[in-house]
Amino acid sequence: MPSLKDMRVRIAATKATQKITKAMQMVAASKLRRAQAAAEAARPYAERMNKVLSSIAAAVAGRDTAPRLLSGTGSDRVHLLVVCTAERGLCGPFNSAIVRLAREKATALLGQGKEVKLLCVGRKGYDQLRRQFLRQIIDTVELRGIKQIGFADAEMIARKITALFDDGVFDVCTLFFSRFKSVIAQIPTAQQIIPAVFETQETPPSYEYEPAEEEILAELLPRNLAVQVFRALLENAASEQGARMTAMDNATRNAGEMIRKQTLNYNRTRQAMITKELIEIISGAEAL
Amino acid sequence: MALFHFELVSPQRVVFSGEVDQVDVPGAEGDFGVLAGHAPLVATLRPGILTVFSGGNELKIVVLGGFAEVSDKGLTVLADIAESVEEIDRDMIARHISEMEERAAKMEPGSELDKLIARLDHFKQVNQHLIGTAMH
Fold it and tell me: Of A179, A270, A275, B22, whose CA is between 20 and 30 Å from A76?
């Protein structure tokens, strides 16, 4: 049986842990507010972009001159999965949920005889995926030092993807991230970005173009890619903080429960010891 | 004058949204003004200054690259960076200009260099304008 001192040390340790998890929850809550605002601010841009692009895409659809970013390479043999995760752990099921979705997709594709390549954004996803898919991972991007994700970071990743596409490394590109629904609900999502997919809509107005259609598309499509990546990163950032907040809230509550049990146990043992000592004194006195 | 809906959106936020009389947009192939009932148009932007006229007020906004789309619903401008002339980070523009000048000095002649120089000129123009308004 542990001595009373050991038990006291144990309680103190649990209390210290609880303080840490509590602090982490607070930090996540305040970061969440900023990340959520950023994610929500980026939504209109991504949506408008999608709308503009889908109407132009509908106008050039079926033409031979349609850019390859829009129409694809015509085959779907090699798939590139871009897995966006966090740089840090301790955020509940956030990272593993995204990784699981990507892993399922990769396994399914491999089962169909397709080739799979992976691009990991964020260290945590890389750590989890390299056990199974080390040979498939062609590149990783770390966003460690970056406090607030800027458009430039997304552009950097998008440029990497386009460069790979231009080199004919893959045919289809899918983006994996976690969509931020609310603090308690983050939905791991897969979004195909190359060839671009748009929701079908009513026939677009016949636009005038300045400069020519092809030139606009050539500029618009890579930008759209960057925007989609940017949005995924921001949604991810908000989801991560939300997941961490929930996880740390649970941890704090669990620690509280543990402290309660340990204190109860401590007091019981202490009282048992006092009783035992009293019995010893009394029976000693009686023996005289 | 008839009003139409104008939205200026950057990746960071919605910079402007509302009913306006006229918007002058710095298109890649020259400035153009948009009034209510403009024909559907998609155009790329160059770095420049976008002017919004609404109810007798004039609002100048620096936009650095992007797209404009005119449809029957109004004008939507998607800009990489959009800040009002008062708020834009002038040092950032100056830094950009010196960076590009350095790059241009090192580059081989060719279409890449031409593009860079054109972009540099646009930035210089914006900068000129900013310095001009600052002195007023």
Answer: A179
The ipTM, to two decimals, is: 0.72
Judge whether A208 is closer than 8 Å to chain B, CB to CB.
yes
| Structural class in CATH, domain A21-247 | alpha beta
Positions of E strands within A211-279: none
What fold characterizes domain B4-84? Answer: ATP Synthase; domain 1 (2.60.15)
Percent of chain A whose pLDDT exceeds 70: 95
Say if the Cβ atoms of B7 and A48 lie within 8 Å.
yes
- Give the active site residues of A: 91
The answer to whether residues B52 and B23 touch, using CB atoms and an 8 Å cutoff, is yes
Contact across the interface for A220 and B13, Cβ inside 8 Å? no
Domain chopping of chain A, boundaries:
21-247
- Convert the pLDDT of each residue in B54-88 to its tens digit: 888 888 888 888 888 888 888 989 888 888 877 77
Burial of A189 (0-12, 13-18, 19+ CB in 10 A): middle
- How many interchain CB pairs under 8 A, A with B? 67
